[in-house]
Automatic annotation (TrEMBL):
<feature type="signal peptide">
    <location>
        <begin position="1"/>
        <end position="18"/>
    </location>
</feature>
<feature type="domain" description="Glucose-methanol-choline oxidoreductase N-terminal">
    <location>
        <begin position="296"/>
        <end position="310"/>
    </location>
</feature>
<dbReference type="InterPro" id="IPR000172">
    <property type="entry name" value="GMC_OxRdtase_N"/>
</dbReference>
<dbReference type="GO" id="GO:0050660">
    <property type="term" value="F:flavin adenine dinucleotide binding"/>
</dbReference>
<dbReference type="Pfam" id="PF00732">
    <property type="entry name" value="GMC_oxred_N"/>
</dbReference>
<dbReference type="InterPro" id="IPR036188">
    <property type="entry name" value="FAD/NAD-bd_sf"/>
</dbReference>
<keyword id="KW-0274">FAD</keyword>
<comment type="similarity">
    <text>Belongs to the GMC oxidoreductase family.</text>
</comment>
<protein>
    <recommendedName>
        <fullName>Glucose-methanol-choline oxidoreductase N-terminal domain-containing protein</fullName>
    </recommendedName>
</protein>
<dbReference type="GO" id="GO:0016614">
    <property type="term" value="F:oxidoreductase activity, acting on CH-OH group of donors"/>
</dbReference>
<feature type="domain" description="Glucose-methanol-choline oxidoreductase N-terminal">
    <location>
        <begin position="120"/>
        <end position="143"/>
    </location>
</feature>
<keyword id="KW-0285">Flavoprotein</keyword>
<dbReference type="InterPro" id="IPR012132">
    <property type="entry name" value="GMC_OxRdtase"/>
</dbReference>
<keyword id="KW-0732">Signal</keyword>
Length: 381
C-alpha cells in the first residue's frame, strides 16, 4: 500500500516544480544532460559514482579546464531518496544486477548458490542504492597504503579531506575534532530511532565496550549510526558533489552513456580517448590531459580488459588485442551479508511493516522529513 502511494507521489512530484514546498524538496533539483558534445575535453571521467562525482567536481573548479563526465545510468528519483527503500533499489534498473559465479565457500543458501552483487547505476553510482552508513576507512589501512609507496594517502593526509567534504552540523554525539561542518556532504543521525538503539548501545557498555564516535580516533565500540542524509533523505554523491556545480560551463555531464572502450595508443601506451554508446549511437571523444576511470569495482576492471589491459590468455580468448598483460580483476574481495539472525522483540519497540505502511507516516516523511520512513533497516539480501 505505502509503496504504491510512494510511487504515485514520486510520479506527481517529479513532474512539478516543487522548490517552494520547503527544504525537503530542494533535493529534486534535477541534473539535465549537457546540450552538446565536443570532440575534445581536457579530462574525461568515466562513471559518476562516489569517486567520479568528487573528481568531476574538483577538476571543474579550474574554469580553464573542460571536463566530461560519462555515466551509464541516469538521475536519481523520489524513490531512491527514501532511506527505508534502500533494499528495494536492488530490484530496479538502478542496480546493474550482477550475480557471482557459483562457489563452494559462500552463498550456499542463495538461489542457484550465486551471490547477488549489487552495484548502483546512476548519477551518484552505488551511493544511490547503498545503506547510507557514513563510516570512514580504518586509519591503519590508509597508513598501509602510504607504506606501500603512496605518499599523500596516509591517515594524517586523508583526514583533512574527510573534514573538508563533510557537513555534520546536525550531529550530536560526535568528537568534533574529527568532523567538518561546512562541506557539501551532509551527515546526520537518522531522525527516527526506535528504543532498540538505546538498548543496543547500553548492551555494548554492559559488555565493557565504549560508546564511541565511529569516525573518530578509535572506532572499536558501539555507536549510533552517522548517515549520509540531508533532512532525512539520501544525500548521494551526486547531491553532494554534482548538483551544486551542475551549471558550471566547463563541466559536461552525459547520462545513459556507457563507455565501451578506452582508446590507448599501443606504442606509447597512452590513453587518449574513449568510445561510448548513448541511446544506440556510438561516439568517440578525446582527452587532452587525462582519462579518469571510476566505473566501480566490477566495471572498472571490465573496461580495462575491453581496452586491452588484462590477463593475456583471457583477452586472446575474446579476440581483444593485448595492450598490456596484467592480472586485472584478480584481487576482488567481497563481504556478503545475511539476515538469518532473528529474534523476537515487542512490536512496540521496533518499526514493523504495519507502521511503515501507515499513510500518516508517508505524509509525515514528506512534510517534515521525520518518522520511520527514513529509518535504516538491516539489509535483506
Ligand atoms: C547494497 C550496498 C550497500 C552499501 N552500503 C554502504 C553503506 O552503508 N556505507 C558505505 O560507506 N558504503 C556502502 N556501500 C559501498 C559504497 O556504496 C561503494 O563502495 C561506493 O559507492 C563505490 O564508489 P565508486 O565510485 O567506486 O563506484 P560506484 O559508486 O559504483 O560508481 C561507479 C559508476 O560508474 C558507472 N559506470 C560503470 N560502468 C560504466 C561504463 N562502462 N560507462 C559509464 N559509466 C559506467 C556506474 O553506473 C556507476 O554510476 C554499499 C554497497 C552496496 C552494493
Ligand atoms: C586560467 O588561465 C589564465 C590565462 O592563461 C590564467 O591567468 C589563470 O591563472 C588560469 N586560471 C587557473 C585557475 O589556473
Ligand atoms: C581502541 O579501543 C579499544 C577498546 O576500548 C582498545 O582495546 C584499543 O586498544 C583501542 N585502540 C587504540 C589504537 O587506541
Ligand atoms: C514486552 O512487553 C511485556 C508486556 O507489556 C513486558 O512485560 C515485557 O517486559 C516487554 N519486554 C521487553 C523486552 O520490553
Amino acid at each position: 500500500m505505502a509503496l504504491i502511494l510512494l510511487f504515485l507521489l514520486s510520479l506527481v512530484i517529479s513532474n512539478i516544480k516543487c522548490q517552494n514546498f520547503g527544504r525537503f524538496f530542494n533535493n529534486f533539483d534535477r541534473i539535465s544532460d549537457s546540450k552538446q558534445l565536443l570532440d575534445h575535453y581536457d579530462f574525461i571521467v568515466i562513471g559518476a559514482g562516489s569517486g567520479g562525482s568528487v573528481v568531476a567536481n574538483r577538476l571543474s573548479e579550474n574554469s580553464n579546464w573542460t571536463v566530461l563526465l560519462l555515466e551509464a545510468g541516469w538521475d536519481e528519483n523520489f524513490f531512491t531518496d527514501v532511506p527505508l527503500m534502500a533494499t528495494l533499489q536492488t530490484i530496479t534498473a538502478y542496480n546493474w544486477g550482477y550475480r557471482g559465479e557459483k562457489i563452494k565457500t559462500a552463498c550456499l543458501g542463495a538461489v542457484e548458490g550465486r551471490c547477488n552483487l549489487a552495484r548502483g547505476k546512476a548519477l551518484g553510482g552505488t551511493s544511490v542504492i547503498n545503506f547510507l552508513i557514513y563510516s570512514r576507512g580504518n586509519r591503519h589501512d590508509f597508513d598501509e597504503w602510504e607504506s606501500l609507496g603512496n605518499p599523500g594517502w596516509g591517515y594524517k593526509d586523508i583526514l583533512p579531506f574527510f573534514i573538508k567534504s563533510e557537513n555534520c552540523r546536525e550531529c550530536k554525539e560526535i568528537d568534533r575534532r574529527y568532523h567538518g561542518f561546512d562541506g557539501p556532504l551532509s551527515i546526520e543521525h537518522p531522525g527516527y530511532e526506535s528504543p532498540m538503539a538505546k538498548s543496543f548501545i547500553k548492551a555494548g557498555i554492559d559488555m565493557g565496550y565504549k560508546n564511541v564516535d565511529l569516525n573518530a580516533y578509535n572506532e572499536t565500540g558501539f555507536s549510533k549510526v552517522q548517515s549520509t542524509m540531508r533532512h532525512g533523505t539520501r544525500c548521494s554523491a551526486s547531491k553532494a558533489f554534482l548538483k551544486p556545480v551542475k551549471n558550471r560551463p566547463n563541466l559536461f555531464i552525459s547520462t545513459q552513456s556507457q563507455v565501451t572502450k578506452i582508446l590507448i595508443d599501443p606504442k606509447t601506451k597512452t590513453a587518449h580517448g574513449v568510445e561510448f554508446r548513448k541511446k544506440n549511437i556510438k561516439y568517440i571523444v578525446r582527452a587532452r590531459k587525462e582519462i579518469i576511470l571510476s566505473a566501480g569495482t566490477f566495471n572498472s576492471p571490465q573496461l580495462l580488459m575491453l581496452s586491452g589491459i588484462g590477463p593475456k590468455e583471457h583477452l586472446e580468448e575474446l579476440n581483444i588485442p593485448v595492450v598490456q598483460d596484467l592480472k586485472v580483476g584478480f584481487n576482488l574481495q567481497d563481504h556478503t551479508a545475511l539476515s538469518t539472525l532473528a529474534f523476537l522483540v515487542n512490536e512496540s519497540i521496533t518499526i514493523s511493516d504495519i507502521s511503515v505502511q501507515n499513510p500518516w507516516d508517508v505524509f509525515n516523511y514528506i512534510w517534515s522529513g521525520k518518522g520511520p520512513l527514513h529509518y535504516l533497516v538491516v539489509p535483506k539480501l
